[in-house]
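Write out the 3D structure for:
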Amino acid sequence: VEIGDVNAPSATSAIYMFQECYGLKTVGTLTLTSCTILTKLFYYCQSLKTIKNVVFSSSASSVSCSNMYARCYSLTKAFIPQVPISDASSMFFYCYALSEILPVGGVFDLSGTTSRSYLRQVFYYCYNLERLPNTKFSTSSSYSGSTSSIYFVRYARNLREIPAIDFSAATVGGGSRWLYISGTKLVRCQMTGMTQSVYFINSDLSAD
């Protein structure tokens, strides 16, 4: 199944727009310039391989992206908004084939998140992803919620590079354990503004 361009510039919500379209393989350019709710936009589109482009809002104060691409097993390239994201939980959950996050040089802006639950399982089982986008966490508020740790990246077994993560002023209530990055071939990581513990499990990082 193939869908051409979808132009919905006045829509404010795209929740469940293509949820569980199991036979969908190709989508053209999706224009969602007024949307602030992108929850489960492509959830469980298990055959989806190609999205030509997604045009997001460039002026929204924040957008919700929970489970946006979750269980898109075949998708190779995904697009992220260039405005603050308020909920990124399970955004790329079980995206086995994902190898590129666009736009190139863009920022995965998580400065709209305020709770640990909004950062859970973001990159889970992204087997083919080798590089995370530049990532920015909250610069204005503490991360509240459960004291349990956040598995931000897990079982991304080919992940080799995290080019830049900015933790400036990001603090966590309820304990010192915070972010886990697990199951990777990580050899390069640049972090700034760290005030909390970050754990790298099963990576190839060295002190250098």
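Residues 77 and 100 are 5 Å apart (CA to CA).
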